[in-house]
Structure formats: C-alpha cells, structure tokens
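Job type: complex structure
Entries:
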Amino acid sequence: MLFFILKRLSQSILVMAIVSAVSFSLFNFVGDPVNNMVGQDATREQRVEIRQQLGLDDPVLTQYTRFLGNMLQGDFGLSYRIKRPVDELIFERLPATLELVFVSAIIALLVGITMGVYTGIRRKSWASRAILSISLVGVSLPTFIIGIALIYIFAVHLRWLPSSGRSGTVDLGWWKTSLLTVDGWRAIILPAITLSLFQLTLILRLVRAEMLEVMQTDFIKFARARGLSERAINFRHALRNTLVPVITIIGINIGGLIAFSVITETVFQWPGTGLMFIQAVDFVDVPIMAAYLVFVALLFVLINLVVDILYFVVDPRIRLGD
Amino acid sequence: MHFKKLLTVSVAALTVANPALAENVLRWTSQGDALTMDPHSQNEGPTIAMNGQIYESLVTRDAELNLQPELAESWEAGADGWTFNLRKGVKFHDGADFTAEDVVFSFERANHEASDYKEQAKNVTSVEVIDDHTVKLMTDGPNPILPNQLTSIYMIDKGWAEANNVVAPQDFKAKEETYAVRNSNGTGPFALVSRAPDEMTVLARNADWWGEGMFPGNIDKIEYRPITNAATRVAALLSGEVDFVLDPPLQDIKRIESSDGLGVKTVAQIRSIFFGMDQGIDQLRTSDAEGNPFKDAKVREAFNLAIDKAAIQRVVMEGLSFPTGMITPPGVLGNTPENDPSYGFDPTKAKALLAEAGYPDGFSIQLDCPNNRYNNDEKICQAAVAMLAKIGVKVNLDAIPKAQHFPKIQKRETDFYMLGWGVPTLDSHYVFSYLLDGEGSWNATGYSNPRVNEITTAIVTEIDIDKRTALIDEAWTHVKADMPYVPIHHQVLAWGIADNVDIPIAADDAFRPRYAVMK
C-alpha cells in the first residue's frame, strides 16, 4: 500500500514538472508584459531596462529553472500587474472559487442524480423526454451564453437576483465566506447554476444509463420476484449499484469545475482565481499565470491520486494486479 | 420615565439615521480595476481614474478639458521655470497640512527610477521652495506647456510617505508589496473607505475638502465595481444595479438608449485611429514587391484614397466615429479645420496612382492589427483589407492581442500596422515626438522629415504662443502632404448613465465626480 502511494506520488511529481515546463514555454507566445507595465510615453531605454530587470531576455530554460528554484522555496514572485505576492493573491481568491465550486457540485449532484433516477425509471413519460431534451442544452451551449442568458432573465427582466459580483461576504479571519448571508446566497445562485449545468447533465445521463442497465439485471428481477416494494428496488438496490462509476466521474470533475470556473467567473465577475487568471493572461502577468497553472495541475494530480488510492481500497483486483 | 427615555433615544436615532437616508450614493462600473493605490506607480487608465478622486495635482482639467487650478491657485511662466502659488489651508485626509515641501517631495517621487510618471515629471528638473505656499518648478530652458504636463502628477504627503516607508514607488525587483499599494492619503474630494480588488471599492466624501461648496457635485459616497465582461456590465446598468457605465460596448448603445430611465452621452474622444506604413526600410518584410513601394508617395496616397472612411464610420462603427485626415483629434492644439478633413475616397484614382508608381497589378502585404485594444479594431482592419483588395493590393491580416501587437511597433518589425494615439497634454508636441519625429519611440513608419523634426525640437522651448502655434500648423501641413500614415477616424466615447444622475462626459474618458449631480 505504502509502496503504491509512493509510486503514484513520484509519478505525480513528474507530471507536475512536465505541466509547468510546457505552460512556461507557452508564455513566450503570449506577448510582452513590459508594454502593459509602463505608460505609452516610456522610452525605449526604459523598456529595455525593465526587460533586463525581469530577466525576460534570458533563454526560456534559464527563466524556467529560476522559476522552479524560487517556487521550491515557496516564492512565486510578485504579480507584474498588481505588484503583490502571487501566493497571497491566490489564497485570497481561493475561497470565492472553492465556494462556487462547492455549491455547483451540490447542485449538479442533487439535481443530476434525482433526475437521472427519474428518467431511468419512467423512461417513457413526457417529463423524462422533456428533461432529456433540455439536458442537451446543458452539454451543447457554451457556458458564457448560458451565463448571459441567466443574467438577462433573472437580473435584467425579473430583477430577482443580482447580475454579477460576490456580495454579503463575512470575514472569518482565515476564510472570507459568502455562504452565511442571504445576499451572499442570492449572488452565488446564478454562477453556481451556470457552472453546474455541464456536470449536472453529465451525471444525469450517466445515472440514467446505469439505471437502465441495472434494471435489466437478474438481481433486480429476482428482487421483484421476492416481492420487494418498488421504492426498495429502485433506491436500495438499483441506485446503489449505479453510484460506483458516478463517484469516479465526480471525483475527476471537481478538478474540472475549478479549472473551468474561469469562464463562469469572468461572466459573473466572481472574484475568484479564474477571473484573476483571465486578467493575468490579458496583461501577460507571467508570475500569476505560472503559479495558477501549477496550482491547477497540482489539484488534478492530487484528486487523481486520491481516486487511485480509493480504487486501491475499494477494488481488490487492482491490488492483485499490482 | 421609561417612555420618555425611549423617545429621546429614538429621536436621537432618527437624527443620526436621517442624513444616511438622504445620502447620495453613486454606483458605477467599468472594465478594469485600479492596479494600485500608489499614485506614481502605474500610468494606466483605471488607476489614474481611481487615484484622481483621492489625490490631486497642482493643475487639473474640467470636463471641457480646460486647465483649472487645483492645489495651485495660480501660476506664472518664467524663462527658467514656472512659479506656482499653492492653495492655503489644504489638508490631507489624515489631517496633515499640504505645503511646499510636499510638492518638492512629490516631484522627487514622480521622478524616481521606479515611477511610471517620470516621462512627464522629468520636465521639472527641480523644485525651489520660495515660501510655505509658493514653489518654483525649474525647467531645462523655457517650457511653454508645463502646466499641461502636470495634470496627472499627484501630490502626496511627505510625512505620511516617510512614516510608512513609501518614499519611492514600488519597483519591479521588489519582493514585497509596499504600504501605498493598498492605502492612500490624498487631498482630494473623496477618501478611500474600503477596497476589495476586482470586487468593490468604496470612497466617501471628504467633508474637509478645500473645494466643498465650489462645485456642483453632490455625491456623498462612490461605490465602484469593476466588471470585466462587457455584456455583464451592460446588464448591471439595465437591471439598475449601477447608475453609470463608463465603457459600454458600441453595439449595446441603442439598447441602453431605448431603456426606460437610462441614457447615453457621447463625445469625440482624444484618440485617433490610423494605419502606419513603413517607408524607411529598403525591402518590405511581408511583401512580394521588389524593394519598398511605400517609399513612393503615390503609393501612400493610393492607400489613403482606397480606404472608405465614411463606410467604416457607417458600417463598422455604427456612426460612432469622426472620419479624419489627421492623426490627432480636435481638442489637441494643432488640429485645424483645414487639415482635419479626410483625404477622401477615390478607388479609381488610387488604382491609377498605383499604376503610375509601377504597381498596376498591386502587391501583397501583411497588416498587423490589435484585436483587444480599440473600438472594433479588428473589424476596421477587415474592412480595410476588402477595400485595398479593390485596388489590387492583397492584404494578409494578422489580428492579435495588444500584448503581442505593440512590441512589433516598438521594435519596428512591421510593414503596415494599426495604431491609436491619445494625447494627455492636448498639445501636438506629444504627437510629433512619439509618432512623427524620426527618432520617435512609437514611430515605426521610418518617416523623418528634417523640417518636422526641427519644429518638434523648436516648440519645446518656444514661449511665444502665436509663433509656436504657427510652427505646429506648418509641421502638420508637411505631414498632410507627406502622408506617412493613413488616418481613419477619431474615436467616439459613449457613457451609459441612469437618468437620476447628471455626469458631464469628458473627451479624456475620465469620470469627474465633483461635477456629478444626483437628482
């Protein structure tokens, strides 16, 4: 077991190194940050000087090694744009992103599983057909269109909810939360729905497919023959057996939610890490871009590691094959 | 007894609560948040806009862009510098007095290595203190337009800066943020109450401001919320969550105008959009033509005549632009009704000119264009590509983000490019020295007319205003004939404003809350 985890960990470190190297080499194509850092009336000499100060003219490999060295010492540098330490900026904005991801994961799970079970059992009712057709919208429409549509319906026309921003935050000292106030909840509903829609559809369709399959199996027929109630069959026997693949998917997709919150956060001006990343790309704020990509890679790697370990615990066949 | 006590308490509560109810809160938004509260660290639009409400300069501009006294009450030119009489009784937000030594300190700070304002501040070589409320800003020889160059050099308190270890603006090598990045202490009409970057910045009226009662503005509190996404920004205005959007996208203007309780104000912006043609290099980099066709004035004229500026205004800009024949807009000293009209649109003549120059079948060339900087920048380029195709010039469009586009111009690595230019000093020298002088740092055209270069130098020190203006006009007449650029139009600014507030629009795109009146 310990050996397995160590092996996985060393693989993860390799993945991290590759991801950071690839993303770092991409920064050479994003453009020149200096132009954004000084006014249009700065002279050519001033621009050259700043390039030298920042070491932008060094070979990519030198820049990368320097970045890695600093990072291993816990120094992610100072943002070019905001001139504040990058790790501080990321941790300041992480609560907003994590709360958004948390709420949208809950929505995706609750609604996705409920509807999945329903459409799996009553697969011929018109409600099931309607749900399935509408769910197509969830997978096919891009997030920003869904977001803008929700804003125009619920904020501009009905005026029920705020159009953007995060409000009603309470500072707990180590965490700024917006989940303790009505204002905060009003602000999080639309972005959370927008972010959850894709995952929700995925879970719905997965649960439905699994339900359809499980309902055909012998043990369900046997349970029916035993005279168990429909309720017991559907929820105690059928649903439980569908959840194994669903949990796997969810585990992987939580990482995806954090990474893809970039677009949702931009549409709703949600002050999380994704919004900060987009602004960094616009400005060519290399320290923030580098730290953010490393952070997301780390997240994926960690989640995969946990999933792998869970498999190891849950499924004895993996242990044998190892 | 108890009842009486209760009554007194309630009355007291009411008197406290009442002014709060009557408070005029202005909620507004634009695309970007200020990057820092340090007034000398970032020479960038949203940062200047935010700091300009908290900090003040010696001289400022009103909404019509006329020079107005701010921390100086009057000023006078001399042969070696300008004397400024400072306003008396001005206090910083922390209560410290504003005196001559703060002026000395502020100019030193703005001139510091790490300052982003040193290009403007370097015009002041030193500051001589005459008495507590009189200073002389020394210049290197006579400088006729010094006050124009001072409007965004903000005054900061020496004692506060020393106490908080922010004597210098933050430089790029620093490892830690300085105190001034998130704290401020100005003399302005508003003081910083709270700030959450990219979320909300709240400013409150400074009751001790020197200008209290001298301006029409009646705003008590300003809530600024940056919204990056343009559609979301407009939605916030439509839903009544904000009263004012500084930068609604042009395609949403009609939508805002047709909404109840909302209006749009427009004005010609101090920014012109144009194409540059590299006529200096011997062999173009991206063309199939032998040598450099742009060296021939006929080719440059053909390009100017081939582009239908009126069609771009009508179709691409939905009317929101002013077609022009100059690369600097009205409002800047040097733009004249004689030179401003565009070169016109005459594809037949353009084709004939190309043939005369030896390119009857045209040639190919790459047009470098930004896609996230100016109003409809990429669409303007696309329109130009189609128009030039009609005279036989095959243009390959390369539209890329500004962070990649602008270095091409600075390194002079582009044959044909789009650029826009704003003029903070409202004086042609700012245009000549960067765009037309042979050595200009943004002049990638290779254009170098000895007479224009000579005038660029001469107007720096010419203090006879009539003579100076005549020189500027002469230089523009040369430029008009030489055609180093293809001027397209002056941009139009549009602000979306709720009917319950009156905000005068200004051509420099700056929000001036001291003139904003809530009804």
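Summary: Residues 218 and 517 of chain B are 5 Å apart (CA to CA). The radius of gyration of chain B is 26 Å.
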